[in-house]
Amino acid sequence: MKYLKLILISILLIPVLVSAHGPSRQKVVQEIEINANADKIWKIIENFCSIQDWHPGILSCNADNDSEIKSIRTIELKNGEKINEVLFKLDAENKRMQYGMQELEEGRIIKGLPIATHGSIISISESKGKSKVQWKGAFYRSFPGQQPPPELTDEVCIEAVTIFYKTGLENLKKLAEK
Q: Can you tell me whether residue 51 is helix, strand or coil?
């Protein structure tokens, strides 16, 4: 009888436990082909704060330690929002940069980019004088609960990050192909 009660309680608790988790990790990958060699493109993006020069959505950028590993940059978006990001890897030989957003204060929502955490990799590969730039990221939405308001759903966050990446890559292409 004890085992039967234990089994029944377990069966009843499983749906509660399964539905109790928070948001799931989302991913976005954007790529663009650029008619320029990888070295030229890398020169544009290799400085951790050069994002202010090639991404039209960035108003300014300041880094505490240039492009050194663990350097923290503060980017200011055109809408006035500020985001702190940490440089994890900068590989000039393989033309790859990896960075992540620092944790936000609890309850803070970035206007236009409603995500709570973010890790990104920008990489460049070349073939026959053309290059492919890939910008990929993983993130969680800023709303921690199960039923976010319409403006904070996973779909809205995916769209916002996709637009952010795509806008940056399109402008990088224009600059590199000059």
A: helix
